[in-house]
């Protein structure tokens, strides 16, 4: 197999795309008009089966916004610093900010009668344009003919990517610990997921996360390693704030993985729902108030967000999945895909046949709030920077609780300080020879007894058997807690449960 | 084949459901807790990967409503009657009505932090309850164990129904003229649509629409009529305001069709997106102002809405598809399915794996507006009655334009006065022996030249060949026009194009 720089044109659609996807490319029949035919300059419509906007009961919508996360309930348990010291550039943090969405002639606004009407499966034009400006600013693809298409959230984006690439019996590479709902999407189209080992050993001296050597060896020896399985069509990867591990691939790692994709000619599905939520390295929570924690947007882009696989993709083999769920609100069910135009065209055909368009209500809220309140791409990034500080603070609260614990000091626990996203993976250090999964099953009950919900690593595997030796961890998240106290209390319950378990000789 | 009154329990899920659907039924593994285990009474969550509502930029949403369709732009070209005479029970038609959606403890409201959060694939509980109360009031099913599930519009509902029932090679019966996007959903799962003849002959003395005798004969002689094709698993039908014909099946017809479904053991997918939009029989548009046109809700339900197939369904074989698109707004992408609980469970599994939940933003708007502005089920029906009057008026404007035309008076046209929905089918009366489809292709250009968009019947067929003889019609809709003048102008262009075409000897 050799490198192929015209991947998309030669392969992704015509060869790599699923038969299902290729079957969808519709051909519009053209007919010869009779001699002398001229179309009317201003035709009237008796054909489109859609209600006039006058039939809708809604006249307008006012969206009332906050200036920063937790504006109404922020609790700072350690100092009494005012919210103003968090956000020194805000004149008045209590001011109400309302974006009114109505019938209006303003090309930047999504007009309410447009958003409540049947919409394009590609998405509302203004929001599409925003996603393109945003990608252009933060993750400019290395290939020219890229495009975006709106989805009903990252879940919908992943379904579309699976549907685009996989027919029954096709193989897709997946990080051994992953966002497991995607495995159901793979199964739904009959695909076969093959796990790729993650390096979780801090003492290895190698980058944590996807094990590039393992991947390289597997691909080089595919026929002997996976006899009878077809060569993989794609790699599914969560490169930043990996779920459930919390690691972020360096750009060097991405380049190595991409080189393998070129060499072995497979597509990369980049599920990057956490990449903008970069997190500071751990610092004691009290230090949150230093003003230099607030990054400038240019610095944020240049030095904190790891560039997407798109930015090194010369042949259009990357399909990037984004979402507004983590940055705006999950209930919107809104996200987008960035990929080569020929890929987005096939995805639009799929949307046209199966998933239809995303909610117009959600699109109008996101687009109008970003355009009119945040002020476009840079304002949107400033909002994300506010989230970043709040999430970093929460992460540090949880880590601090662990680092200060007896369980940690006694060596029962090891932690990966996440560089992005919402998850901390905490490893239970069991001696060699101990039946780890049997013991962790008991520990699960200990957590239930101590009153803390956690995700056992083994439940996030592609193949339990394959990953058993590396499944001695729990995924903890600092995202859903109501306030700081809940995080510290939950963290406390976690470490106490672990300590109790070890003190009782790994018995319940 | 014999009647089977335990269709759902014995067949729909275990036998009739697609292999794909059956594969999705998930079994939760249960494990034995260790001795002495007790769960904590108030556990804290470090497991759910979802942001706290405090991370959302939205504090509250005000939805500003109108009292009746076209409140701001209603034009009455014939008389100068005020809008108050339309809606005599409204005290002040210009009053602003705002429903505020915020964080609030009120079981009827959808709280904004709930709606913007990840939601249940079944739908937000309050909206689910409304759909159940609504169905109970208007179309109470004849079987006990029914349930509803929220969808992202009727399109999503139809995809789910196709996915539920059909594997590759399975047959589904479809009215020969139909909502053609559903054919793509059938194709997507590999199903085979078989057209059922519609009676479009006004002189036949038989009910217009689905030809029950044809259906009965076809089923009785399936093996000889359709050699090699498996027996149909389902019938897809648009029983009210049929798209594109405009007819509504009487309850007697529905009973006959249902009896065939029992006899031959197939499911019925009832796509009823127009059933509430009943239309008065034609009357000259001027007469719109008679106050007795405004029905009481009880009268509306008892005498105007034709009861759903659900109301005669004793064995749970009907899957009813509803939408808020035609009654509220299409951009919401919101609807629901009514079916047996075992069916809705399988549909929830599908949503969980593939389509995810509907937009929370759309659900919060619909539920809160219906609960707080319309006042629940009966208020919602009152809103629909306002739509009914407006649509009836529009329909009559279009029909009047046709009835008064030279083309109609000269016998070039025949019209079906629709009893529900948004569509008028207008037949072009061509002499026997004329190559109808060749002539209609020319007429299509005539319409483009006169400046009126219409849908040729032939483009809405399951099988062009099968329906060629009955495809001499156009589907016209009075729904999208901006105002009354646009409808009359568009209608005028339509009849003038037809007249011109006939006057020129059926040439362009």
Shape of chain A: globular
How many separate helices of chain A? 18
**Mean pLDDT level of chain A:** 88
CATH top level label of the largest domain in chain A: Alpha Beta
Q: Give me the CATH architecture of the largest domain in chain A, please.
A: 3-Layer(aba) Sandwich
Q: What distance separates the N and C termini of chain A?
A: 54 Å
Strands of the biggest beta sheet of chain A: in what spatial order? Answer: 4-12-11-10-9-5-6
How many structural domains are formed by the residues of chain A?
2
Q: How much is the radius of gyration of chain A in Å?
A: 25 Å
Query: Could you tell me the number of beta strands of chain A?
Result: 17
Low-confidence stretches of chain A: 1-6, 75-96
How does the helix and strand content of chain A classify structurally? alpha/beta
**Would you tell me which CATH topology of the largest domain in chain A applies?**
Aspartate Aminotransferase, domain 2
Strand fraction band of chain A? 5-15%
Percent helix range of chain A: 25-40%
Largest sheet of chain A: 7 strands, mixed
Please, what is the oligomeric state?
A: homodimer
Most extensive chain-chain interface:
A-B, 115 and 115 residues
Question: CATH superfamily membership of the largest domain in chain A, which one?
Answer: Type I PLP-dependent aspartate aminotransferase-like (Major domain)
């Amino acid at each position: 197999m050799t490198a192929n720089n015209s991947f998309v044109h030669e392969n992704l659609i015509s060869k790599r795309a699923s038969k299902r996807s290729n079957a969808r490319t519709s051909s519009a029949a053209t007919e010869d008009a009779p001699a002398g035919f001229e179309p009317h300059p201003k035709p009237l419509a008796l054909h489109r089966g859609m209600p006039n906007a006058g039939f809708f009961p809604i006249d307008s919508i006012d969206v009332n916004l906050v200036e920063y996360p937790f504006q109404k309930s922020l609790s700072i348990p350690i100092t009494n610093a005012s919210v103003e010291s968090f956000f020194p550039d805000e004149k008045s943090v209590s001011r109400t900010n309302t974006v009114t969405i109505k019938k209006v002639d303003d090309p930047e606004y999504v007009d309410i009668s447009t958003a409540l009407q049947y919409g394009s499966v590609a998405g509302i034009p203004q929001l599409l344009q925003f996603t393109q400006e945003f990608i252009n600013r933060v993750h400019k693809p290395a290939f020219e003919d890229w495009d975006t298409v709106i989805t009903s959230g990252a879940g919908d984006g992943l379904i579309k990517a699976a549907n685009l690439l996989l027919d029954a019996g096709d193989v897709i590479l997946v990080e051994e610990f992953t966002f497991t709902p995607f495995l159901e999407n793979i199964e739904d189209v009959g695909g076969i997921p093959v796990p790729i080992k993650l390096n979780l050993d801090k003492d290895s001296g190698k980058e944590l996360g996807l094990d590039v050597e393992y991947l390289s060896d597997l691909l080089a020896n595919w026929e002997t390693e996976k006899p009878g399985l077809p060569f993989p069509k794609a790699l599914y990867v969560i490169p930043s704030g990996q779920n459930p591990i919390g690691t972020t691939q360096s750009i060097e790692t991405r380049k190595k993985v991409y080189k393998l994709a070129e060499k072995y000619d497979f597509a990369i599905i980049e599920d990057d729902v956490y990449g903008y939520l970069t997190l500071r390295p751990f610092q004691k929570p009290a230090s949150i108030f230093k003003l230099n924690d607030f990054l400038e947007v240019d610095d944020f882009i240049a030095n904190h967000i790891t560039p997407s696989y798109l930015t090194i993709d010369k042949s259009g083999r990357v399909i990037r999945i984004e979402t507004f769920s983590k940055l705006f609100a999950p209930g919107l069910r809104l996200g987008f895909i960035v990929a080569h135009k020929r890929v987005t065209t096939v995805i639009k055909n799929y949307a046209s046949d199966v998933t239809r368009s995303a909610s117009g209500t959600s699109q109008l809220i996101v687009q109008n709030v970003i355009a009119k309140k945040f002020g476009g791409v840079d304002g949107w990034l400033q909002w994300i920077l506010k989230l970043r500080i709040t999430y970093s603070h929460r992460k540090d609260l949880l880590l601090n609780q662990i680092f200060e614990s007896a369980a940690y000091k006694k060596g029962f626990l090891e932690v990966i300080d996440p560089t992005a996203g919402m998850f901390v993976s905490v490893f239970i250090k069991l001696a060699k020879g101990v039946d780890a999964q049997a013991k962790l099953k008991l520990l699960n009950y200990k957590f239930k007894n101590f009153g803390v919900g956690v995700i056992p690593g083994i439940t996030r595997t592609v193949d339990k058997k394959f990953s058993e030796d590396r499944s001695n961890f729990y995924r903890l998240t600092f995202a859903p807690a109501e306030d700081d106290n809940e995080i510290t209390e939950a963290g406390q319950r976690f470490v106490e449960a672990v300590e109790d378990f070890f003190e009782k000789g790994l018995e319940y």
